Amino acid sequence: MSMKNTKHTISRRGLIKGSVGGFVGLTAGALGAPAIIKASDDTIRVGHITPRSGFLGTLGDYGFRGVNLAVEELNAAGGILGREVDLFSEDSVGSAVAPTKAQKLIEKRKVHFLVGEISSGSGGGVMATANRLKTMYMQTGCNSDALRGEKCNKYSFHVEAGNTMYTKTIGNWQNRAGNVNGKNFYMLTADYAFGHDLARVSTRFLTENGGNVMANELVATNTPDYSPYILKVKDAKPDFVYINLAGADQTTFLKQYKEYGLDYAISGGVMDTAGFWAAGIESITGYWQSLWYHGMDTPSSKAFAKAFTEKYKKPPENQAWGDYIGVKIMAAAMEEAKSVDPAKIIPLLESGMEFDILKPRKGHFRKWDHSLLQQMFVVKVKDKADMQDEWDIFEIVEASPGDNENLAVIQPTQSENMCAMG
After folding, report:
1. Tens digit of pLDDT for each residue in 160-198?
2. Is residue 379 a contact partner of residue 317, using CB atoms and an 8 Å limit?
3. How many Cβ atoms from other residues are within 10 Å of residue 414's Cβ?
4. Rounded Cα distance, 69 and 309, in Å
5. Which of 143, 161, 170, 286 is deepest in the core (most CB within 10 A)?
6. Is 237 left (phi over 0), alpha (psi -120 to 50) or beta?
């Protein structure tokens, strides 16, 4: 059966036998929902929207698998508010189509909330649609700070980290290591909303800390040949090649850059684990920032990674984590509010309600821009000899913020990214 543009009802008859343990405050069972789902057509309907094709399609597939697992677990634990959970999925395709797909899920499928998306261009349209139709949306893959700033709205909440969070996580570490002040950076930037925003916040961070951005090349998505850009890098002789690319474009660049054998180190404003997996260990090196990693050593994270790997025969990527967590957060909030009404759920999420997000520290949403306050991580590419398997490419170096730091320190300030909910 196709996974695209279809209804995916996870019924009691097809359930896994038990849900992942350890998600205190996340699973319906942990919140006191009945063990048996009531026989009723009055289901909780989840609308999942994400790219399932194009250069972000691989990430979208991970996202779908994550949301599918979350729905299975919720139904195994009694559903949400004692009601069975139905999943409807749409391929968002691109920014011109995504708002229409979101409207279809809301008006035709009557979903109670939306979750997903990866492209910041598409995500802005989905957010606007959700706001207009007064439907809650857990945004799980779009990085642009603008979605949390000038485009923010009261119905949208952001599980995915923004570009400033990615930039500060790796930037602060590199700065302490002496790799920013006085260094020259050559940027390659995806030519759409995500890339433009990431180049802006990365340039701000680098220049404020004494770095110099020599050039910022805009690169079309799905570019097959990076040799013209790599030759420019060779001539420029930077200290770092700084990539603001996403999805399959990361993979393509990393593989081709390796073939040229240049000595200029690679860094960047974002890192997609799936893109690095596809590039292969021989083509990747250095230190990067990660929102989550399947090797995270917490009980709930290990349980999620185990369940995902057993079901799909490969470990979860960050996008699977995000879509999974987005559904679990909404389930927990609905249980706590004892309602599916956004008017009751939104104030609850804004109140500082905490969630186990499979990291050492719990997360909660910031009231004024609905960004999830959470830890990120600096990771180091492993030596090939130290890998346990083909997926074991990183070791976690440090959490950011640290255990005793305010979770907001890697977030943009209100002056940097003003949000007016309206």
Report:
1. 999 999 999 999 999 999 999 999 999 999 999 999 999
2. no
3. 12
4. 11
5. 143
6. left
